[in-house]
Amino acid sequence: MKNINLVSLLDRYNTDDRCRDALEAIRWPSGVACPRCGDMDVSEITTRNVWACASCDYRFSVTVGTIMHRSHLPLRKWFLAIYLMCESKKGMSANQLKRSLGVQYKTAWHLCHRIREAMGNDPFTGPTLVGIVEMDQTLIGGKAKGKDWRDNKHWVAGAIERGGRVRLERIPDIRKGTIHDFVKRTISDEAEAIYTDELRSHVGLETDTRRHESVNHSAEEWVVGDVHTNSVEGVWSLFKRSIVGSFHKMSVKHMDRYLEELEWRFNNRDNPYIFRDALRRIMRTSPLEYRTLIAN
């Protein structure tokens, strides 16, 4: 599955049986095991594409208990949807997926969110960013104007290693405590430096081993030597172009899932096995029911 492209995907996984074989190899590399009791004494019922456990008599398919659980969509369409979402730099809208797969909008919308859920599974935890790290915050939301223009917008914090990984998180505000807590969760004390803009909440980010330097955007100062926030601002630009150009609108209820999708896809931008790794996440992510998605 290295460096797979659309043509090779369609050639290799042109039937549900081939897709099923690939998923079984990913889920059970050492042999099929019952997901209920773990016993490997199982027999295949080929006419129904399920397995039967001799110990607990449980019947199961390769997708049981995963994000694909009880999906009636053909596996080859699942594979195509996963590939398109992995390879779409600005994101894939449900309407576009609807047209590409020939399905109803409701099916495409649910499918997109299930794949995003899998991409966000097993996220980075702890302060993982090292080296030179750029950090910034941005407002994401509607186009409300006037004195209440921020009421329909939400703050998102981002930190990125120069040439490396990004961490994104929705935050309630940009007060000093909130910003410093975000730094503690994401940026290692062993990082060489943190580069930010002139926001007063950034004061005090330096430590005995870590520098903090800033550029003053309000004074039209964008780059001072190697100090700038262009990398993280590029991530904001990518996310906002996704909203405007692909999604058109986004509910705050689902914003975290969109951020997790962008974070995972960005961090795997040079991964030649991105499609395989996406399938692995699909196989270890619990079901996400439609009624859960639309619940208040």
What report would you give on this structure?
- With 296 residues, the chain is α/β, with parallel strands linked by helices.
- 38% of the residues lie in helices and 15% in strands.
- The chain has a 5-stranded mixed beta sheet with strand order 6-5-4-7-8, with helices on both faces. The chain has a 3-stranded antiparallel beta sheet with strand order 1-2-3, with no helix packed on it.
- Strand 2 (50-53) and strand 3 form a beta hairpin.
- It is elongated and about 70 Å long.
How do you describe this structure in short?
The protein is an alpha/beta fold.
Give me the secondary-structure topology.
Blueprint: H1 6-12, H2 16-27, E1 42-45, E2 50-53, E3 59-60, H3 75-87, H4 94-101, H5 105-119, E4 132-141, E5 153-161, E6 166-171, H6 176-186, E7 193-196, E8 211-214, H7 230-247, H8 255-267, H9 274-283, H10 290-294
Unreliable runs, pLDDT <50, ≥5 residues?
none
CA radius of gyration is: 22 Å
Which term fits the overall shape?
A: elongated
What is the strand content? 5-15%
Helix vs. strand class: alpha/beta
Assembly level:
single chain
Helix proportion range: 25-40%
Strand order of the largest sheet: 6-5-4-7-8
The major sheet is characterized as:
5 strands, mixed
Mean pLDDT: 92
Could you tell me how far the N terminus lies from the C terminus, measured between alpha carbons in angstroms?
39 Å
- Per DSSP, the total helix count is 10
How many β strands by DSSP? 8
SSE order, one letter for each helix or strand:
HHEEEHHHEEEHEEHHHH
